[in-house]
UniProtKB/TrEMBL annotation:
PANTHER family: CYCLIN-RELATED F-BOX FAMILY, F-BOX ASSOCIATED DOMAIN-CONTAINING PROTEIN. It comes from the Eukaryota. Residues 2-57 form the F-box domain. It comes from Caenorhabditis tropicalis. Signal peptide: none annotated. It holds the Pfam family FBA_2. This is F-box domain-containing protein.
Length: 339
C-alpha cells in the first residue's frame, strides 16, 4: 500500500524523509513531481559542495563534499531519455551497491539532469570538467552553457584539433590542467600553444605536457598564470639560474607561486644568487600554499632553509624558494618577513 507522504504536514514530511537511509531513494522521490522535489531540497543534510563533470567512456556528474559523494553515469547522452546510473563514492572511488540504482526519465536531457542534481543537492560550486574521452564540441557546449566551471582538465589530447575543441568548450575557465601521459603525441600549431600559455589563468598545471615546447625556458617565460605547476620539468641548472635573474628584472610579473618537479637536480646556491640582491628572512619563516595539482589539493610548505630571499629590482617584491627531493618551490610576495 502506498505511503501518503505528500498528504502529511510539511514538518512530518521532513521528519519522515530524514529517516530514509539511502540518498539514492531521495533522488528517486525528487523525480516524482515538482512538489516532491521541493520537499527533498528542504533537507539540509543533502547539501554537497562541488559539482564535477567527467567525459570518459561516458558522461559523468560527480557531486561530493570531502571524501564522500555520488557519481552519476549517463549513457545515450545528449538526447532526451538518457539512462542514468548512480553510485556512492568514497575517496573518489565507487562504492558499488549490489543493486545500483538507475533511471530513465523520457523528457529529461543531459543538461536537465545537471540542473536537477545541482538544485536538489544545493551545490555551491562548479569545480571542473575533465576531458578524458571523446566528445562532440558543439553539442557539449550547448549542454554546459551558463555553467561556471572553474577548471578545465584535459588529459591526453590526441591532436591540435582535439586540444582546441576541449578549450573551446570552456573558454573562460579560471584554471587549466594540461596532462599528457601518452608518448609520441606531437602538436604542430605552436602559435596556439603559445597563445594558451599567455592566457590570464589563475593556475596553470603542466603535467608532462608538450615538453618540446615548455621544455624551452624562453617559451616557459611567456606563461602569464598566477600559479604554475610544471611536473616532469626538463630544466637544467643554467635554466634555473637564468629564470631567477630574469625574474629580478621583471619577467613573469603575475607569478605568485611556482612549483617545478625535477628528476635529478642539485642546486648551486652560490651560482643562482650571484649578481642578485639578496635579503635575509627569519630562519623559521614558512609559507603554506594550497593549490590544486592533478585534481587533488596539495598543501605545499615552502621553507627557506638558507634563510635568504631575492628582491625584484622593478618593484621590490620578495621571492623565497626551497629545493627538496627533486622539487623546487618558489613563493613570491611583498609581505614576506624580512630580518
Amino acid at each position: 500500500m502506498p505511503f501518503p507522504l505528500l498528504s502529511l504536514p510539511i514538518d512530518l514530511q521532513i521528519l519522515v524523509l530524514q529517516t530514509v537511509d539511502k540518498t539514492i531513494d531521495l533522488i528517486s522521490l525528487s523525480l516524482c513531481s515538482k512538489r516532491a522535489k521541493t520537499i527533498v531540497k528542504s533537507l539540509r543534510h543533502l547539501k554537497l559542495d562541488l559539482c564535477e563533470i567527467w567525459i570518459k567512456d561516458g558522461f559523468h556528474i560527480h557531486l561530493h563534499t570531502g571524501l564522500c559523494g555520488l557519481r552519476f553515469e549517463l549513457t545515450e547522452v545528449f538526447t532526451t531519455g538518457a539512462l542514468v546510473r548512480v553510485n556512492e563514492t568514497l575517496g573518489g572511488l565507487d562504492v558499488w551497491d549490489e543493486f545500483p540504482k538507475s533511471w530513465r526519465v523520457p523528457d529529461m536531457t543531459t543538461r536537465d539532469w545537471i540542473d536537477h542534481l545541482r538544485e536538489v543537492f544545493l551545490v555551491s560550486e562548479n569545480s571542473y570538467i575533465d576531458f578524458g574521452g571523446p566528445f562532440e564540441r558543439d553539442t557539449l557546449r550547448m549542454v554546459l552553457r551558463g555553467l561556471d566551471m572553474k577548471l578545465n582538465h584535459i588529459r591526453n589530447p590526441l591532436s591540435d584539433d582535439h586540444l582546441k575543441s576541449a578549450l573551446a568548450v570552456l573558454p573562460n575557465a579560471e584554471e587549466l590542467d594540461l596532462v599528457q601521459y601518452q608518448e609520441n603525441i606531437q602538436f604542430h600549431d605552436k602559435k596556439f600553444i603559445k597563445k594558451v600559455s599567455m592566457q590570464n589563468y589563475r593556475r596553470l598545471d603542466l603535467i608532462d605536457f608538450c615538453p618540446e615546447h615548455f621544455g624551452s625556458l624562453d617559451n616557459f617565460l611567456l606563461i602569464n598564470a598566477k600559479t604554475v605547476a610544471h611536473s616532469e620539468s626538463k630544466f637544467r641548472k643554467t635554466d634555473i639560474d637564468r629564470f631567477l635573474k630574469l625574474w629580478t628584472r621583471g619577467a613573469m610579473r603575475r607569478l605568485e607561486y611556482l612549483f617545478l618537479d625535477f628528476s635529478e637536480l642539485i642546486p648551486d646556491w652560490d651560482g643562482f644568487l650571484e649578481g642578485m640582491e639578496c635579503v635575509k628572512i627569519a630562519e623559521k619563516e614558512e609559507r603554506t600554499k594550497t593549490f590544486q595539482h592533478s585534481l587533488t589539493y596539495r598543501h605545499s610548505i615552502v621553507r627557506n632553509t638558507e634563510g635568504i630571499a631575492i628582491r625584484r629590482r622593478t618593484d621590490g617584491v620578495i621571492a623565497t624558494f626551497n629545493y627538496e627531493n627533486g622539487r623546487f618551490d618558489f613563493l613570491f610576495g611583498i609581505n614576506l618577513f624580512v630580518v
